[in-house]
Specification:
Order of helices and strands: HEHEHEHEHEHEHEHEH
Strand order of the largest sheet: 7-6-5-4-3-2-1-8
Radius of gyration: 17 Å
Helix content: 40-55%
Bound molecules: pyridoxal-5'-phosphate
Number of helices: 9
CATH superfamily: Alanine racemase
Mean pLDDT: 96
Largest sheet: 8 strands, parallel
Low-confidence stretches: none
């Protein structure tokens, strides 16, 4: 049964997070698991909710919007973790509690304007590009503090902290160490912006070792995704 498969995946991921916390001398309560349900049916998210998961992540509005709508009665926090185009902001602000991919001033303006219009308060994480690949989204490290200031000054949004995806072909521990340094500088200016969203199925240990407060896990929980066409 699907529920048993998901329960087994969740137990495995829980034990990995627990182990990573112990190794890092951190409390398990400092790390939130975000179950990334992209490409999976809404039913998987419903099962996860039944197993006690409270945070889910999606990366494409076309898929996330109907799922969030279908599951709106469940006690879930919705995280939007994918690259976000301004023409999708209206839809995403309608269901996302936290947007992890804020990487340019135009996006801050658009989210703020729409959140005010809809009477919502949306959490924003500044996504940091930890490599020079512009295709994967994220602000350059040198632009992160300025963007954080923009979010902090905008209406309808709150500044959560930072997010990153480990670059391909580099030791993730080194990349996450840079992210942690940046997060600490950001916290000097914005002490409540303590979220560090880092770590996926393959590198959650390294992320927890370097201060991640939120890990975004799909494959290790729900199995391999089929490649999908856009
Ligand atoms: C898909 C995705 C994840 C989850 O990745 P897995 O390797 O399946 O755990 C995490 N973060 C983002 C931004 C993603 O797009």
């Amino acid at each position: 049964m699907r529920r048993d498969e998901i329960a087994a995946g969740l137990a495995e991921v829980e034990s990995r997070i627990g182990e990573a916390c112990r190794a890092a001398g951190r409390d398990r309560g400092e790390v939130t698991l975000i179950a990334v349900t992209k490409t999976r049916p809404a039913e998987d998210a419903r099962i996860l909710a039944g197993l006690g998961v409270r945070d889910v992540g999606e990366n494409r509005d076309q898929e996330a919007a109907p799922k969030a709508h279908e599951l709106h009665e469940l006690p879930l926090t919705w995280h939007f973790v994918g690259q976000l185009q301004t023409n999708k902001v209206r839809s995403v602000v309608g269901y996302a509690d936290v947007i992890h991919s804020v990487d340019r001033p135009r996006l801050v303006e658009a989210i703020s304007k729409e959140a005010v219009r809809q009477g919502r308060k949306v959490g924003c994480l500044v996504q940091v590009a930890l490599d020079d690949d512009p295709g994967r989204g994220g602000a350059r490290p040198g632009d992160v503090l300025g963007l954080a200031d923009d979010v902090a000054a905008a209406d309808g949004v709150w500044l959560g902290g930072v997010m990153a995806v480990a670059p391909l072909g580099e030791d993730p521990a080194k990349a996450f160490a840079r992210l942690h340094d940046l997060a600490l500088s950001l916290q000097e200016r914005h002490p409540r912006a303590t979220m560090i969203s880092a770590g996926m199925s393959e590198d959650l240990n390294e992320a927890v070792a370097h201060g991640a407060t939120h890990v975004r896990v799909g494959t290790a929980l729900l199995g391999r995704r089929k490649p999908f066409v856009r």
